[in-house]
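New to this. Look over this protein:
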Amino acid sequence: MSNLKNLPSVDAVKQLAKKNYPSINDFVLSSAVRQLLDEIRAKNSPLPQKNTIEGEEFLLELSKRAVDLTHELERFNLRPVVNATGIVLHTNLGRAPMPLEVTKNIASVAENYSTLEYNLETGDRGSRYSHIEQLICKITGAEAAVVVNNNAAAVLLILSALSKKPKNEVIVSRGELVEIGGSFRIPDIMSLGGAILKEVGTTNKTKLHDYEGAISKKTAAILKVHTSNFKLIGFCHEEEIADLKKVSVKNKIPLIYDFGSGMLDEYEPRLVGEEPVLSAIKNGVDVICFSGDKLLGGPQCGIIAGKKELVDRIKKHQLTRVLRVDKLCLAALEPLFRLYMDKDMARLKIPVLKMLSYNGDELKERAQNLCDLIKGDMASHLEIRIVDMDSQVGGGSAPTLDLASYGIEIYSHKLKVNEIEKRLRANEIPIITRIKNDRILMDVRTIFDNQFDIIKNAIELLVV
């Protein structure tokens, strides 16, 4: 390259860029041009090597790259993607997509002032939980409820509020001392909450007499934990809520249930085996906590529900304020729980429940529609066909359950499968897929109808 002193000025590059793209953001464009010029000075330029850095050709090339970089800098890091993996509650992709009724209410509350802690009847300060507590209780049958920022926080808060010296031993089955994503470990959370872990039973079998034999004057509660991302099979046994309740009543100690997956009722028959929230409360659990962004189908939060006397103690604990949710979470929960007032409406409107309830014929038809849409744009190097595949619930729910599904398989005689996957992931709206047997797989269970055109347009770019 010639002398770097001959590099075009920032203004010169900007003027040419704005001539072709008059609406481009001026501030971001300036940053982009400076970044490119700095890279050239550092001899780390993304531009093709030239014999000169002077002249109209180089200036034009630099302005085009500046426009591209401006668009990259303007793009949000947290943005929507097409989930073609077939994993309904994909933790890395934000878990549960929310219903339209929920997102509309979030937007309305977010762009205005709200009644977050204001009582319209009295004109006085109100409670943020008043907007949702009665609705949760009506749906679940609980006496009281409170919401914190995730289920791990809910477990920590419950243990902190209900296990205090001298009664601070909490009984847990050895088969339920789990570790879930993010190194969340039940023993560590119990210790942090001030509870002393009292292990009972064995890894594979814990019976009522194990619980009964561990109860003492120091016992604060019995804790049952949903095993989340694994399942014991074979020679194993765990006690049901209804049976554990008999022990807790006899000994006058509360029964707590950490039910992470958050399935309210048996909306999907294939998920039977995980006692849902409504059933657990009906069977006598004193306090239950569950996630909002898993099978419930809402925002990230931890919902605590149960007996009023215990939930009131939890509400008064100092950690409740530390772990409280914001107005956007509450704005999401209210319309979500209103949908649950009608079981059929919940299945129809809540994406997670709808995805899990698809039958084979529906999925095959959707796969055929997607295949027909994109086949017209196929190049000679692409092969696209409908295939059967297995979906997963994900999010630590029903880890052993595979859901029969359908989707499309893409193979190229020209492009390597990793290159196709990379291009789809780099799409304007990224498309996240699976790779199997040197083929790209897209499971239609987790693809929305309005995303079919996004896939079509991305396939067109593979054809070029």
